[in-house]
Write a structure and sequence with these properties.
This protein is mostly helical. About 50% of the residues lie in helices and about 5% in strands. Helix 3 runs parallel beside helix 7 and helix 4 packs across helix 5.
Length: about 140
């Protein structure tokens, strides 16, 4: 979920988020959920040697995430589709060509193969995972 804090500058400047592949479905996860699972894993031996897949509790597209941010800050934020070339032009100067292409390929893959939520967080912590709506409300000041 914290990765979408990268949108704060464009939201503050123009109430817009630009990203490629608007149909890409991700399962964003809150850092507190990652920490809660890590605590369970490192304080016991039950999960030693196991691979645990983490995810947030819901599959969401970027436009859906933008809508939750919009609701949380009380003003309209638009989503504009960015072409792959526009995305690469922006991000290659920030993270380098290889990483920018890797990120873009990930969005394309999530558009072709939508992610589905995993039950790991509630199964290991005994509580529901934080939803993106809850995260957006808690982090609204970052986008104002």
């Amino acid at each position: 979920m914290n990765n979408t804090l990268d949108w704060a500058t464009s939201i503050k400047a123009g109430n817009v988020v630009r990203a490629p592949y608007p149909a890409a479905v991700q399962t964003p996860i809150d850092l507190s959920d990652i920490a809660a699972v890590a605590r369970v894993v490192i304080t016991g031996e039950r999960y030693t040697g196991q691979k645990l897949t983490l995810s947030g509790p819901e599959g969401l597209t970027a436009p859906q995430q933008v809508e939750y941010i919009s609701q949380a800050i009380g003003r309209e934020v638009r989503f504009e589709e960015q072409s792959p070339q526009q995305y690469l032009a922006l991000w290659r100067s920030i993270v380098g060509e290889e990483t920018a292409q890797w990120l873009l390929d990930g969005f394309r893959m999530m558009a072709e193969h939508p992610m589905a939520p995993e039950p790991t967080v509630p199964a290991l912590t005994g509580r529901p995972a934080v939803t993106y709506r809850e995260w957006a409300i808690a982090n609204a000041d970052a986008f104002r």
